[in-house]
Amino acid sequence: MLIHRASVFALATFAGLAACRSAAPKPSEEARAQADVSDQIGLQLYSFRAAMKDDLDGTLAKVAAMGFKEVEVPELYGLTAADLRTKIESHGLHVRSMMGNFDSLEGKLDSVVADAQAMGADLVVCPWIPHQDGFDTDDMNRALTVFNRAGSALKAVGVRFAYHMHGYEFQAGPTGKFYFDQMVEQTTPGEVDFEMDVYWVVSPGADPVAYLKRYPGRFPLLHLKDLRKGVPTGAATGKGNVEDNVVLGTGQMDFPGIIAAARAQGAQWFFIEDESSRAMEAVPQSVAYLKSLRF
């Protein structure tokens, strides 16, 4: 999750790039998997969490000025879903995905469904499964009950549900299988899918490309986040130092391989998430890096 390139925000050319591709002969599946991803890049607004709370409109204006069109919303910032949507759209942004916390999915599912509809979101993502000293089978089974119910209810109104892994799922349960693999196997595609945060796959020592290939179609969206070179991996705790988030392309991740595999299995959206204190400066550099990729 190189040498820093100049922060050139040509994201305003996304539409033009897409138009050029549509005018060209229809590419093969492999070619599409390795095409430019400019028109699929969005921002997880949690990256600017402090700024969003201090100056919502001003921060949204900055996001738009960076060239983003699609955003993922982590919370409502004290507003109704409808009012937040109005603010976001007033800056030329669109809510593609919104977070639904576990407690709300478990106890206030109707409210989550209503908020997703009011927000105009295509996806609702649960970012965390509550657990105490360690993630275990009981935690997983509780989550599966909540997720299967939520996925069915959201699908009924045309919204896709996904779970965002956080690293602690990549440890073996009593069956010998990783909890994450059990979760994929015990859920229905199209009702419960997954947002792959590549940082939280690499951090516990797993391989994002291998998982994308193992479970095709189950990852409609990804979080792109890089891990500083030299930071050890292998601990499936879901804990890390946010300052180990670095500009995309400068850390440990194989983004060309990850993005090609993600697109080949059906990913539609790639949300940059940078949790470090340098996010406002780093995000433009991460976008410039993604735009530089040629497979």
Please provide a written account of the structure.
The structure is a single chain. The protein has helices spanning 14-23, 29-33, 49-54, 56-65, 81-90, 102-107, 109-119, 137-155, 179-185, 199-202, 208-214, 255-264, 279-292; strands at residues 41-44, 70-73, 94-99, 123-126, 160-164, 193-197, 221-224, 226-227, 245-246, 269-272. The chain is of the alpha/beta class and 295 residues long. Strand 2 (70-73), helix 5 (81-90) and strand 3 form a beta-alpha-beta unit. Helix 5 packs parallel to helix 7 (109-119) and helix 11 packs parallel to helix 12 (255-264). The longest helix has 19 residues, at 137-155. The two termini are 19 Å apart.
What is the strand and helix layout of this fold?
Blueprint: H1 14-23, H2 29-33, E1 41-44, H3 49-54, H4 56-65, E2 70-73, H5 81-90, E3 94-99, H6 102-107, H7 109-119, E4 123-126, H8 137-155, E5 160-164, H9 179-185, E6 193-197, H10 199-202, H11 208-214, E7 221-224, E8 226-227, E9 245-246, H12 255-264, E10 269-272, H13 279-292
Parallel strand pairs: 1-2, 1-10, 2-3, 3-4, 4-5, 5-6, 6-7, 7-10
Antiparallel strand pairs: 8-9
Please trace the helix and strand order, writing H or E for each element: HHEHHEHEHHEHEHEHHEEEHEH
**Uncertain runs:** 1-34
Strand order of the largest sheet: 1-2-3-4-5-6-7-10
Q: How many separate helices?
A: 13
Task: Let me know the average pLDDT.
Answer: 90
Task: Give the CA-based shape.
Answer: globular
Structural class, please? alpha/beta
Radius of gyration computed on alpha carbons: 18 Å
Could you give the count of β-strands? 10
The biggest beta sheet reads: 8 strands, parallel, barrel
Alpha-carbon distance between the two ends: 19 Å
Helical residues, percent: 40-55%
Strand content: 5-15%
